[in-house]
Amino acid sequence: MILNIKHVTEYAFEDAHPYGLQQLRLTPKNRPGQTVLDWDLEVTGANIETVFTDHHANTVTLLSFEAGTEKIGINAHGRVETEDLAGVTGKHSGFVPEWLFKRSTSLTRAGANVRSLAKGLKDEYESEVPLLHALSERILEAVPYKIGATESRTTADEAIEKGEGVCQDHAHIFVAAARSLGFPARYVSGYLLLDEQENQDATHAWAEALVSGIGWIGFDVSNGICPDARYVRVATGLDYQDAAPVTGLRFGTGSEAIKVEIQVQQQ
User: Fold this and answer.
1) Are the beta carbons of 239 and 231 closer than 8 angstroms?
2) Per-residue tens of pLDDT for the chain, all 267 residues
3) Does 94 share its domain with 195?
4) What residues does the Transglutaminase-like domain cover (predicted)?
5) Partners of residue 75 on adjacent β-strands
6) Nearest CA-CA partner of 56 in 22, 110, 98
7) I need a surface site. Which of 34, 114, 232, 241 has the fewest CB within 10 A?
8) What is the DSSP secondary structure assignment for residue 31, as one 8-state letter?
9) What is the Cβ-side half-sphere exposure of residue 24, based on CA atoms within 13 angstroms?
10) Cβ(39)–Cβ(76) under 8 Å?
């Protein structure tokens, strides 16, 4: 399957800022199950300072903008060829050792709610893959999908407490719970081809766990499946902060307005 993707982000600042920096993780990975056929990143209102590969093997583009900047436009677009590997992305590789993916973060700490949700799974399932599927089902049952119930800083435990959340929350809960069960686990951000819907207002997120003898396997809790040919992996990390499409800082006061438009189409 070949997917055409267009991701446009526009920033409008209330007041001009003296200086700012942004990190973009908007370039898909070449990995088992997906090949980037072509990809471009166009920026207006800011300067591309450098492009580098971070410790999670994400392609990161560093932008800067200077005094007087009122608007920034970011247009990432291209084609990615994908295949259905039942969520399996292969053996562990890269700069980061496996054990690092057992480390919790502020967003993925396995607190009382996470531990309670994962309780008993190891006694109930001897095989690792069925256990992880059962974990995914438990999460969606405990935290049904609902937009607006949480925010980007909501932790895994807080999302369970609220009883509602989005794909980011589901991924954080899965990562936290899987780590508490002894699995290396990571957060994934990317794109998803939706049925009969080309236009979207946000990227998608899911999780991956490292299973002995198989490798990394993806679990999309929000949709109750392992990623297939409709999914495009862009960035991975310990949590959302490592894999967010755009992060940064700016000096000065005043608010900003952000507009995001995403299109994912099958060629």
Assistant:
1) no
2) 999 999 999 988 876 666 788 999 999 999 999 999 999 999 999 999 999 999 999 999 999 988 778 889 999 999 999 999 999 999 998 889 999 999 999 999 999 999 999 999 999 998 999 999 999 999 999 999 999 999 999 999 999 999 999 999 999 999 999 999 999 999 999 999 998 888 998 999 999 999 999 999 999 999 999 999 999 999 999 999 999 999 987 666 667 788 999 999 998
3) yes
4) 159-223
5) 8, 42
6) 98
7) 241
8) B
9) 25
10) yes
Residues 19 and 151 reside in one and the same domain: no
Q: Are residues 107 and 226 in the same domain?
A: yes
CATH number at residue 65: 2.60.40.2250
Q: Are residues 133 and 254 in the same domain?
A: no
Separation in Å, CA 137 to CA 38, 97, 166 = 36, 29, 15
CA dihedral 22, 26, 29, 33 (to 10 degrees): 150
Sort strands 199-200 and 256-266 into parallel, antiparallel or unpaired: antiparallel
Q: Measured between alpha carbons, how far is 119 from 224 in angstroms, rounded to an integer?
A: 20
